[in-house]
């Protein structure tokens, strides 16, 4: 009789140990899964931010191509936000209104700057002011896990020579 009770006790201990091991493995798998999901979410936001920055550059090119004189009127150093106009022209437009700042949890804006040239090359310092070229910098920022991330792209835009 004692041997039967002893075997039941060992079997109960084996079940408890197996349950504990299974619980630990399950907990580790859930933690790994959560880290993976968080990492993928961060990567997706970063990829979306790059696409929005590239789209911002293309939108400003469209604004430039539509009317260079209006493009020249945009103030250097001012933050501009993009929106797609549903007017008769249906095109991109720039505004200083912050209400257009956020695009699905990601902020996007651009800043224009003047360009100086020395011996035909763009220079940051001294040089002659180039009235037909502007420096375009597009900024994109978003919050991810209590951290602000930012991507910045820049290029130089010249007057459309097809005019």
Describe this structure in words.
With 163 residues, the protein is of the alpha+beta class. The protein has one domain. It is built from two helices and seven strands; from the N terminus they run H-H-E-E-E-E-E-E-E. The strands form two sheets. Strands 3, 4, 5, 6 and 7 form a five-stranded antiparallel sheet that branches. A two-stranded antiparallel ribbon has the order 1-2. Strand 3 and strand 4 (106-118) form a beta hairpin. The radius of gyration is 29 Å and the shape is elongated. The model has no long low-confidence stretch (mean pLDDT 85).
Essential attributes:
163 residues; alpha+beta; two-stranded antiparallel ribbon; 2 helices; 7 strands
Structural class: alpha+beta
Number of domains: 1
% residues in beta strands? 25-35%
Main β sheet profile:
5 strands, antiparallel
Distance between the termini: 104 Å
Radius of gyration, CA atoms, in whole angstroms: 29 Å
Q: Spans of 5+ residues with little confidence (pLDDT < 50)? A: none
Mean pLDDT across all amino acids: 85
Q: Can you count the beta strands?
A: 7
Query: What percentage of residues falls in helices of 4 or more residues?
Result: 40-55%
Number of discrete helical segments: 2
Order of helices and strands: HHEEEEEEE
- Principal-axis shape: elongated
Short description:
By secondary structure, this protein is of the alpha+beta class. It has helices spanning 2-66, 68-73, and strands spanning 81-84, 92-95, 102-103, 106-118, 121-123, 128-144, 147-158. Helices cover 44% and strands 34% of the residues.
